Amino acid sequence: MKVLVTGFTPFGVEAINPSFEAVQALSDKIAQANIITLEIPTVFHESIEILDKAIEINKPDIVICVGQAGGRFDITVERVAINIDDARIEDNKGNQPIDEPIFSDGQPAYFANVPIKSMVEKIRESGIPASVSNSAGTFVCNHIMYGLMYLIDKKYSKVRGTFIHVPFIPQQVVDKYNAPSMELSMISKALGLAIEAAIGNRGDIKAALGSIC
Length: 213
Prior knowledge:
It is found in: Cytoplasm. It is an enzyme of class 3 (hydrolase). This protein has 213 residues and is of the alpha/beta class. The protein is built from five helices and eleven strands. Helix 2 crosses helix 4 and helix 3 packs across helix 5 (184-200).
């Protein structure tokens, strides 16, 4: 089995992106699956093109894309991506799409097809805060999750996937008053546990693991 795990380049005013820092710290094997890691640009459309090529070349069974969600305190496994780009800031190449569909022939929304609640439960069992998220936003994180699930719908029907948001790491919040953060080693551990659960569970559990709002 192969699992492709992606993280983003830094964007905005940030000098580091904890998503790829945590991804590249993963073991080469998790639950006997080969782990392939990839850094993708924080750029609309280009990120999906690179992901598409990586799936075609590596032929993974599972794809998990990871991104930063500054302000969230826990690991959030995303349930759904919507077919809209509505960027509050520019991406790393100056693109700022507003109220634009990602793919004109795509569904209004795509849902993750991995056991997201089993993944959250596995992370929580280790003492790391985690929850199911029902909004991946409208920036490049939602964009890449939607792109992944669109590719699964149109080209790679046997692949399973989702997106995981991770918090800031401590060095990013030195000048951000009251901003939550999580140690990089803990984020990487959580991602490994999420991957284990995705590999080991086809069906999902029914449990109240979502956020309050």
